[in-house]
Design a protein that fits this description.
Elements lengths: L1 H11 L3 H15 L16 H13 L6 H11 L3 H23 L18 H14 L6 H15 L2 H4 L1 E3 H5 L4 H4 L13 H15 L6 H10 L2 H14 L2 H6 L12 E5 L5 E3 L1
Parallel strand pairs: 1-2
Antiparallel strand pairs: 2-3
Helix pairs in contact: 1-6, 2-3, 2-5, 3-4, 3-5, 5-13, 6-13, 7-11, 7-13, 11-12
Length: 272
Amino acid sequence: MDVLVELNRLVACSDGRLGTFVRQVCARTVGLPALPAEVSAGVSDADPAVAEFAEQFSVDVSMISDAQRERLREALGDRAFGAVVQMFIGDFVPRVRAGLAAVGVEVAWPDSIAWDHPGNAADALFNGFMPAVARLRSLDPVTSEVVRLRGAAQHNCRLCKSLRETTALDAGGSESLYDEIERFEGSGLLSEAQKAALRYVDALIWTPAHIDAEVAAGVRRYFTDEQAIELTLDVMRNAGNKIAVSLAADAPRVAEGTERYLLDANGQTVFG
């Protein structure tokens, strides 16, 4: 799958000691093996502030404080945004690998990595990986939107919570359905497959190192391997909101209510 090529491209984007350091911190924080790194992590004056930010980014991004943001910017200056992108890669690619392993989908991860210098991770993420995931179409659009909105709520992304995808609305999505996502276990509107997907979303976000066997079995029960890959990568794509939330850049586009958008055939977000 081309999208897995894009995922592996993220891993290859190198940022030297800083990239290595945040990969180790993020993975350790959630109890997963760290991504491969090009160099051994060194210790620098910036490490305490970066480590604190990376740990909170991984545990619960919605709880990052203004003081933590300020300390990160003081430590890294104009490298702060790039460091947060590296945190996202180091935080979420291990979750994807753990999730696919838990649901029994075999993926051949590369044994060796051709490191990308200087490694424009933001370009690889926003212009390569994310559109590639958005182009996938094996999941029905309502399930994809339910999954997106669950992640938006878990990370408390104000922007994401204010958006509604048009194709999903046209396919049967509605506010009454979406209102039940918060307490989905007791929902009479969400399907059993959608509930299984939501349990998996929660596991990837909160307990990626300990995905319950019943949660994994639910994914296998209702979704094909292709759909399970898309579901897992959807969670990661949606979790890109952690970058905006962590930097307090997640303000909604509308003051009240919600705004429609369309994921077009090229995987691009179109408003209007």
